[in-house]
Amino acid sequence: PDTLISINHMGVLLDVQGKLDEAEPYYREALEGRRRVLGDDHPSTLTSINNMGNLLNALGKYEDAASVHRRALDLRERHLGSHHPEVALSLTNLGNVLLSQGRLHEALQFHQRALSIHDMAVQRAVLAQHNIVNGWRRHGGGRIDNISIWKIRRSLSGQKRLRNNKPKTCKRNRKASDLIEIFHLLPFLLE
Fold it and tell me: Within 10 Å of residue 153's Cβ, how many Cβ atoms?
């Protein structure tokens, strides 16, 4: 597996440098080796499938890219469940291939589904943070400081914003909020 990691990294390096034709054999070798050694459903194999699909999309081999990403999506859904963040990655990648082909309505469906999975993940993270701090408050012998109380309040306000689907006001969330608003408007813009 270490050799396969190095082979994959070489493909990534060439890919990032824009040397797509040179990257392809490395991606293929890493994918074939990972399938043989680790099996199709291993996370490293799924990463190689993802890399291959993205490379094929960049090379303009859209049908091949779509096929590879559909395979990754199928494997991830089967092994991780339909609401896992890795499934969202496959949905996004498949949507990107469809965008490259000019199939905007289909791409939008995949991107909206990916976005809803990310929204659920954020909600779960906020709830987990709240539950951890609450646990310390209840069972930590009173060892909770003002910063933790502030974090509880912040997480609760974050939950309310997510639940009410209101735009975020935090600077680092503005771009994400803008993206979410665009995705909500796209169906109307594409009519």
Answer: 12
pLDDT digits (tens, 9 = 90+) for 112-168: 999 999 888 777 777 776 666 666 556 655 555 555 555 555 555 554 454 444 444
**Where do the DSSP E strands lie in the chain?**
none
d(CA 26, CA 9): 8
Tell me which residue has tokens 């209840």.
138
Measured CA to CA, the distance from residue 60 to residue 20 in angstroms comes to 11
Exposure string for 79-116, b = 16+ CB within 10 A, e = fewer: ebeeebebbbbbbbbbbbbbbebebeebbbbbbbbbbe
Rama region for 30: left / alpha / beta (φ>0; ψ in -120 to 50; rest)? alpha
pTM metric for this prediction: 0.67
Query: CA 126 → CA 58, 75, 131, distances in Å?
Result: 36, 28, 9
